[in-house]
């Protein structure tokens, strides 16, 4: 896809709030966009380095809690005589802190876990996510535990043409999510198309060969983990300022599963894969909800996922790309039916 086509798509997405005025539909689009950003960050690890992280939701939750605490302020009792008081800061500063803290946690997990591979890496990431969830649940003095952090300030700004304050806030959040998605996509594209990105792909394809030619495996993987975690933290920050309440349920394993499904169904290792997967599996549950019972919805959801994996094992985007390339070749051959006949073989030329 050319750069012009990409920007045309972005401009079309920017017009969505002009013709989608239903608040619930805008809410679905915003939530879909937030989890699509999370899927894009996971794709950097799963798709380009080949490392499956089933604890990726930890960085999403860390971003959500960090920006919430910075925006609300908190009192932390360190000793019997001293309590650390952190005054509330602007919401935009909380988002920056969320990105930085999530990135640092990604560096820590990367340095710790990338020394192992395969199932051991998966276990480390799941364990990290569970530890963070338990900290959020039990450190009541800081996180309020199951009572949740609420009244988180919104990042939204006023939209002049919106009919109500609620609609204005949703439109503003839609544009914020779209902006972060575009910036994240550009960062990931620049990274994977650079020398470092080629190193990541080399590690995914053949790690032993990459090591033999002098590739620093740990350094490349840790960098991917830092960028991936930072983007996931940004998605978590957007989530916190949109829903304006954060509790330990933000670390639920189902959120990681949702991101993995978006990446694999769309096509891991492709820039467009998480976007396509995010759109399909963000809207599909809502479409089924109006026509199916809750029990049937999950059966249909699982059946669709199985069919995609069975018939399109590489994902939707690679399958479409392969079909389009075949269509182009077929079209060219029909336009030039005598091109092959006019090309003489070396033996015929010699005679």
What global shape is seen?
globular
Global structural class:
mainly alpha
Estimated radius of gyration: 23 Å
Reading side by side through the largest sheet, how are the strands ordered?
A: 1-2
Helix-strand sequence: HHHHEEHHHEHHHHEHHHHHH
Kindly identify the CATH topology.
ABC transporter involved in vitamin B12 uptake, BtuC
**Largest beta sheet, briefly?**
2 strands, antiparallel
Unreliable spans? 340-344, 346-351
CATH uppermost class = Mainly Alpha
CATH architecture: Orthogonal Bundle
Instruction: Tell me how many strands there are.
Output: 4
What can you see in these coordinates?
The chain has 351 residues and is mainly alpha-helical. It has 17 helices and four strands. Helix 3 (23-46) crosses helix 12 (253-266) and helix 8 (165-192) runs antiparallel to helix 11. The chain has helices at residues 3-14, 16-19, 23-46, 57-72, 91-113, 119-138, 140-143, 165-192, 195-205, 207-212, 217-243, 253-266, 273-289, 294-311, 316-335, 339-342, 346-350, and strands at residues 74-77, 83-86, 149-150, 245-246. Helices cover 72% and strands 3% of the residues. Strands 1-2 form a two-stranded antiparallel sheet. Residues 340-344 and 346-351 have low confidence and may be disordered. Strand 1 and strand 2 (83-86) form a beta hairpin. It has one domain: ABC transporter involved in vitamin B12 uptake, BtuC (Orthogonal Bundle).
